[in-house]
Amino acid sequence: MPAVADTGIPSLSQILAWGTKHLSQAAADWEVTAEHWESTFTNVHNGTLSPGGTTWSGVAADAAQERALADLVKVRGLADGLQEAATIARRGVDQLDYLKTQAIDAVNAARGAKFTVSENLAVLDTSGSKPPRIGAAQQHATTIAARAAALSTADNEVAAKITAATAELTHHGFSDDEDKTAQALDSPTAPADPYGGLSEARRRALEYADRWAGNAGDPHRANPDYENFGDGGGDCTNFASQVMRAGGFRDAGDGIDDWHRGDADDWYYNNGLHIPGNENSNTWSVAQANRDFIVNSGRGHVVGTSPMPANLAALDPLAPSKAGLMPGDLIYYHDEATGTINHTAVYLGQQLQGGRLVDVVDQHANGANNFHNDWMPDGSGFNGGSASSEFVHLTYPGE
Length: 399
Known about the structure:
It is a single chain. By secondary structure, this protein is α+β, with helices and mostly antiparallel strands. The protein has two domains: 12-171; 200-394, no CATH class. The chain has helices at 12-17, 21-49, 59-112, 134-165, 200-212, 236-246, 282-285, 287-297, 319-323; strands at 116-117, 123-124, 300-307, 330-334, 341-353, 356-362, 373-374, 388-394. A six-stranded antiparallel beta sheet has the order 3-8-4-5-6-7, sandwiched between helices. Strands 1-2 form a two-stranded antiparallel ribbon. α5 runs antiparallel to α6 (236-246).
């Protein structure tokens, strides 16, 4: 947020520049860090039980297992603190964005009534009205100041809550001697990079996917710059194409010679021509056509497939990562009835859910399951029969 003067009320330029991107990024970083901590210490604990697949027993085994369990319990508490901070940050984004809009609306209302709003939020009647509209100017100034103060206050409250949620991080360590000075696990203000080792193009794609996949409170979030092809699952490939474009993939084809939404070697959306009925190619929004374009154009290649059994409990929760997918790659789902690809999801990586490590995706699908959902289908139609999944590794620009 911009620095606010001692009065506690931000200036007009500070209101207009007020941002929440740092909170969204911090929330994403903290969630990934918390999950990484827990999964790492879970693996360490499991490793002491049967290192290399061999049962380990004896005094040394008991000591190692006891220590590993104690560390796991400790790190789960710390991870809970990071998760709480992430939740506070995400709620803060929604609250601050709303209050910023309210403040700007108040400024615009004054301007619409032909008042001038100065940098210090004073409201002046420069319309030349006789007599001057002093009362109306004061009313607008009071409303603007109240909403500006509410924005600043809310920002301070969010910061205080995050500080409280992460306070325990500075008081814990893993020293063998608990009486020694504890070493912090990590700085709450500088969490681990969730996209470490990935190309800048993939980072941009993943940031876009997390921003526009929606969440439990907003399961059908969609970028208003793009047409929404339907909350019933029809928007899945449109969303995946947006993620690819955010990662630097350029549109292919211009649509001029294609009057039925493009040939199989085209991939575009609203690329400046605005031809009626042909603003996007089939390959942009239709799952099967999208997969065929990506593979045939060399933008990606299939690294593995998996049958989708009628009993999804038999499905490997880590099948995509074992096939070699990287965060930012795509998963295509062939339906049960015809074997045609009818759903697309963006692969994100691994996450601990319900006590087990699973591969997760961002997607636009029916229901409140779009953000960091496990990769296994939730609804009918994609298991049993001819159903299967296909894992496609993308080659992002610059890789």
